[in-house]
Design a protein that fits this description.
This protein is mostly helical. The protein folds into two domains: about 50 residues, Arc Repressor Mutant, subunit A (Orthogonal Bundle), CATH 1.10.10.60; about 140 residues, Tetracycline Repressor, domain 2 (Orthogonal Bundle). Helices cover about 75% and strands about 0% of the residues.
């Protein structure tokens, strides 16, 4: 069976994906202000014109990368948390939370990008508005996933799911900051232990 020929739109979408991947690398390495369109184009193996064909400017590309990151994160959290009623002997709440934590603890590249997003948003009101909207969407998705699991396992967390989502996000980001400057200094199970204490207060921590 002959292969379907790529259309112009197929090629544009493929180039867009290459540009976004290149932007991840360049922004993480040089920061937002240090990165240039030329460097991103070179990393993608494309011309500057190809980048500008897909994105109006560097900030537009930065925003698109942020949107992609949020979408990936929300999808991964929803998959990791499972669905209401899916709990069983092989899927304890503790195991589910460890999966969620593993999903939230992104690689070093994404951690650097997160703090690039935060510092840029803090200085740019328009970007901050879009950044905050994305964070609210993520927290809502995380709260929904946590509420599903709390109901499925009949738990009594110390605060409602909406507040749990805020605390989870703050703990993950705070420890990510420490890990960037003190790699390996944070015990592997510290985050899981803290979250379980909030979400499942009656659970006794695993003994070493």
């Amino acid at each position: 069976m002959p292969r379907r020929r790529l259309t112009r739109e197929d090629k544009r979408l493929a180039n867009r994906a290459r540009i976004l991947q290149a932007a991840r690398n360049v922004f993480a390495q040089h920061g937002y202000h240090g990165a240039t369109i030329g460097e991103i184009a070179a990393e993608a193996g494309l011309s500057n014109g190809a980048v500008y064909y897909n994105f109006a400017n560097k900030e537009d590309l930065f925003l698109a990368l942020l949107d992609q990151w949020r979408t990936e994160l929300i999808t991964d959290v929803q998959i990791a948390a499972g669905r209401s009623g899916s709990a069983g002997p092989a899927h304890s709440f503790q195991d589910e939370m460890r999966h969620v934590i593993g999903t939230l603890k992104r690689g070093r590249e994404w951690r650097l990008l997160l703090f690039e997003f935060v510092t840029y948003a803090a200085r740019n009101p328009e970007f901050r508005e879009r950044f905050a909207a994305g964070r609210q969407n993520f927290k809502a998705a995380l709260a929904s996933a946590l509420a599903d699991r709390v109901e499925a396992h009949r738990l009594q967390p110390v605060v409602p799911p909406e507040q749990l989502a805020v605390l989870v996000s703050a703990l993950v980001n705070g420890l990510a900051l420490d890990d960037l400057t003190e790699p390996g200094a944070i015990p592997e199970n510290l985050l899981a232990t803290a979250l379980l204490a909030l979400i499942d207060p009656g659970h006794q921590p695993d003994q070493p």
